[in-house]
Amino acid sequence: MGMIGSITSKGQTTVPKEVRDRLGLERGARIEWIVEDGRAIVRPRKLRAVDLAGMLHRKGMKPLSVEEMDEAIMEAVAEDDARIQREWHGGVAEDGSD
User: Fold this and answer.
1) All domains of the chain, ordered by start, with CATH?
2) Which residues of the chain, if any, have pLDDT below 70?
3) Alpha carbon 94 to chain centroid, angstroms
4) Digit-coded pLDDT (tens) for 34-60
């Protein structure tokens, strides 16, 4: 059964209490948004290091090389750096873009 919510003018939404209870979400909990085929999937981010075991290799997927992993890490760091700079400069990146 789906539950209805709304989005504020700032793009914020409230997770319905029943969903928070069922997923064990509390104030400050991190969630992950996945957009696939016109659908949004939201799931809690409660990973511990032990939860990551085996995640780098999935059946049917080619294992990543160390170079590919390094590249993915550097891309993630660059995205975080850009986000941090935007927040530091009040929402405007150094190049003047939002």
Assistant:
1) 1-51 (2.10.260.10), 58-98 (no CATH)
2) 1, 47-58, 91-98
3) 24
4) 898 999 888 887 755 555 556 666 677
